[in-house]
Amino acid sequence: MNCPMESRENAQLLVDYCAGKLDPEWEARLDGHIATCAACGEFARRQRAVWEALDGWDAAPVSADFDRRLYRRIEAQVSWWDLLVRPFRSPLGTVTPRRTLAGAAAACLLLTAGILLERPAISPAPAPNEMAQVDTVQPEQVERTLDAMEMLNEFSHHVRTEGSGSKL
Ligand SMILES: [Zn+2]
């Protein structure tokens, strides 16, 4: 047979051989090859060491209340707004690095652009230079953008509820 180390087709054979997954006929063939091939012999020796290490490894036991804690976290109600804003909130609430603000502003502008593009009949698309000003954005601008987004969200919510009401 061709040396498994030198042919792609036989490489899986060598792996299966080391895992003890081959049928007796192929196992005998591999035995014969490994007896004469130093490279395959070395590979098999190392693979066996890995399997033995895995056999001796015990996974840490899962804590008794793992399920309960997991479901509590899944069930915790988090609004999309919290999810969006959370990464940009500083733990102290007052000191926010300028770069974080710029990142928040960029995310807000992208989101606003997405909302505006989704509803072209309601508002015009943002001016192209709006995106270029992200680097020099001021905290007040971020605040104004956040307020505008909140208004836009409420507005679209009203439009949606009114729209579904008129159809009835
Ligand atoms: Zn070989």
Structure in a nutshell:
By secondary structure, this protein is mostly helical.
| Cofactors, ions and other ligands in the entry | zinc ion
Distance between the termini: 76 Å
Classification by helices and strands: mainly alpha
Report the major sheet.
Answer: none
Overall pLDDT score? 77
Structural descriptors:
168 residues; mainly alpha; 67% helix
Describe the structure.
The chain has 168 residues and is mostly helical. The chain has 2 domains: 8-55, no CATH class; 77-167, no CATH class. The protein has 8 helices and no strands. The protein has helices at residues 8-19, 24-36, 38-55, 66-75, 80-85, 98-118, 129-132, 139-167. Helix 1 packs across helix 3 (38-55), helix 2 packs across helix 3 and helix 6 (98-118) runs parallel beside helix 8. The relative contact order is 0.06. The model has no long low-confidence stretch (mean pLDDT 77). Bound molecules: zinc ion. Residues 3-5, 33, 37, 39-40 line the site of zinc ion. Zinc ion (ZN) is lined by residues 3-5, 33, 37, 39-40.
